[in-house]
């Protein structure tokens, strides 16, 4: 396949990102009608010929998650029935990723179910970023290109100058590998917080391992919805003598509780990406663009070039 066969379409979850990706790689955004009937049923029509083409459908499954997931599945099916040669589902944010294991009796593994839906609809490849857990790649029986937002964060953080030592903190044990990669790239030391989740939106930071007194601290996480984990970690760090606290979170699905916690909490700045739409609301929230990252991956996929060679980060 070559660049002339490339077609990019977008659902309604994050059209601004899709438009920016297209501007970045100088490819027009495809013409598709993605709307809903009065009863809420999604309707899709691709308004141009995609027969034999290499189709990329950009859609984050962010809130309203079920609606955007259905849009994506229906768009994939529409492209398949229009005889597209290859269909890549581009999910800057993969929803349902936290339901990736059976940790209670009689619960589903919904991350696997979503993978089955995408494949059944006709996706032949997945392009995504910063999955909640790496094993989700194995839920697919089709190729998955898994990118990291780390290069975007590194470029932003490298511009900062401070005389104080930097500590990268993992807000829970599950993010240790990510935090370790940041320490290698930024020349920092590592800290970790053990947490206890009391309710789905309430977290207690229990124990800090590492020295943060007199240091600037960077908390790294893959996603936040209520900001419970990162604000609980920030409280613990501030009480332990941290000077400034910055959080770098790949996906921000902020609800009202999150905004209230960020406003009242000790986090000096939250850095995130536009993988989902983010409204800073006059808070110190810096939104970095991943359009170039995803655009380069799309071009390389279309050209059958290596994607992992470009975006693999030391330590991952």
From TrEMBL:
Domain of life: Bacteria
Swiss-Prot/TrEMBL keywords: ATP-binding, Cytoplasm, Kinase, Magnesium, Metal-binding, Nucleotide biosynthesis, Nucleotide-binding, Transferase
SUPFAM superfamilies (UniProt xref): PRTase-like
Active site: 195
Gene3D superfamilies associated with the record: 3.40.50.2020
Presence of the UniProt keyword ATP-binding in the record: yes
Catalytic activity: D-ribose 5-phosphate + ATP = 5-phospho-alpha-D-ribose 1-diphosphate + AMP + H(+)
Transmembrane among keywords: no
Cofactor annotation comment: Binds 2 Mg(2+) ions per subunit.
Binding-site list for ATP: 39-41, 98-99
Binding site for Mg(2+): 132, 172
InterPro entries in the record: PRib_PP_synth_CS (IPR000842), Pribosyltran_N (IPR029099), PRTase-like (IPR029057), PRTase_dom (IPR000836), Rib-P_diPkinase (IPR005946), Rib-P_diPkinase_bac (IPR037515)
Domain Ribose-phosphate pyrophosphokinase N-terminal, residue spans: 6-122
GO-annotated cellular components: cytoplasm; ribose phosphate diphosphokinase complex
Coiled-coil features, chain-numbered ranges: none
NCBIfam families (UniProt xref): PRK01259.1, ribP_PPkin
Assembly behavior: Homohexamer.
Role of this protein: Involved in the biosynthesis of the central metabolite phospho-alpha-D-ribosyl-1-pyrophosphate (PRPP) via the transfer of pyrophosphoryl group from ATP to 1-hydroxyl of ribose-5-phosphate (Rib-5-P).
Protein name, UniProt field: Ribose-phosphate pyrophosphokinase
Record organism: Opitutus terrae (strain DSM 11246 / JCM 15787 / PB90-1)
Name of the encoding gene: prs
